[in-house]
Amino acid sequence: MRRMLELTGELTLLMVGIGGLFGFVTMPIWLAAAIAFAGSILIGLRLLSFAFVEASHTRPSRVAEPQPLRLGIVDYGKALVAWLLGFRRTYAVEPGLYFTGDSYDVNQPLLVTANYHLSVFLVARRARRSNARLLVIDTNGINVWCAAGKGRFGNDEILKQLRRYPRKLLTEEQKPRLILPKFGMSGVDLQALRDEGIKPVVGPLYASDLPAYLEARPYRNRAKDRVRFDLQSRAYVCLPGLLQVAALSAMMAVAVWVLFLPWATPLQVGIIAISVVVAAAYALLFPIIPGRRFAVKGLVLGALFSGVLLASALTGRMSMTSLWFAVPFTVAAGILIGLEFTGNSAVSNYSKVKREMVAFLPVSLVLFVESERCAGCGICAMVGPHRVIEISDRHASLAAEDRCIECGACQLNCREGAVTVTKGTGCMVAIAREVWFRRRPGAGTCGEESPVEVGCGCG
Hints:
Low-confidence stretches: 52-58, 359-372, 438-459
Helix content: 40-55%
Strand content: 5-15%
Number of strands: 10
Oligomer: single chain
Number of helices: 17
Distance between the termini: 14 Å
Mean pLDDT: 76
Order of helices and strands: HHEHEEHEHHHEHEHHHHHHEHEEHEH
Strand order of the largest sheet: 1-2-4-3-5-6
């Protein structure tokens, strides 16, 4: 159903653009061409996704020996499709042991990643100069971050793949050393891996940091790594988000046009333009927009753009009648885009986003550290992607509670039970499904398994 709705939106976007090019819809030629181009790109990507939908599901692992990992033109095309479709499940790599160099070398670093094609692609590109080995685990074609939240990137799948291969293929030492992605720590119990005779190392958050990391031996835990949601990161998620917003706003424009057919109201293509501009501004200007909540930032941005529209109306560039529709729509679009952005970033917090969406839910303390239980081992500070917890005088304390995204990595790895966190994903879609369809706290989060298909739509 979700795919069909998205396809409907993309078809609508394409038809609106074509209508503008042939004069059936009143709009500038450049805008019609841009809308038609975006629609055609989305339709092409969607058809490719449909064509490979079977390949997105994991196939049974067969060959129990390391395989070479070579990236060709097709892999670059698949990576582009996965990126433009918003990092959703599209293509998968068969789980198993791979090597990126000319030959397999048991002494080279062993990196663990998900079998989501884009994850394998990014890691392999960065690690190939080091002739690194990749242990690709079965996450059902979902990326590391989302799979860890869903419980699919974890100890069971790691051990399952390791047991397929004889020990001599994994290490010449007494215990194999695994370099784990820090984004996957919400699903990995480090001590449990050590109990299984494995030396886990918490690696970098980003694939771009891998080349420098792999050159510096011995490999150490990246305890100080923090999520950096800088301009480059925001631009990386901006274009996929714009394509989604364009398709949805096209559906809305057509719906408004149909609703007002009795009054002969023309198609409001401004809905598409306003939505795309607000979405682009929100992503690129995110840190400097006033407000500490996603929805508040969207409200502020919507109000600013409404001021621009008001100025346009006062100078005669748009009618006052159009202004009465444009201003409330722009404000509403800003709020909705702000909440939608929660699923495109690694800085959203489950409870805070939920409070933004569901005002009637009680405010509760979701994260605290019991200092009397803390042994000061520092594991909680190491595994968290935002370095929310710091160790001082052999005790953990909350140093930056506002940065906490409630991924649950600290609680999972604390052996003393000193950390408690309400684990969940700060994604608007996941929380909406939890509230509207399950009506039970936590049921719609990525970390909750249930017979009903709920979650954020990534798998």
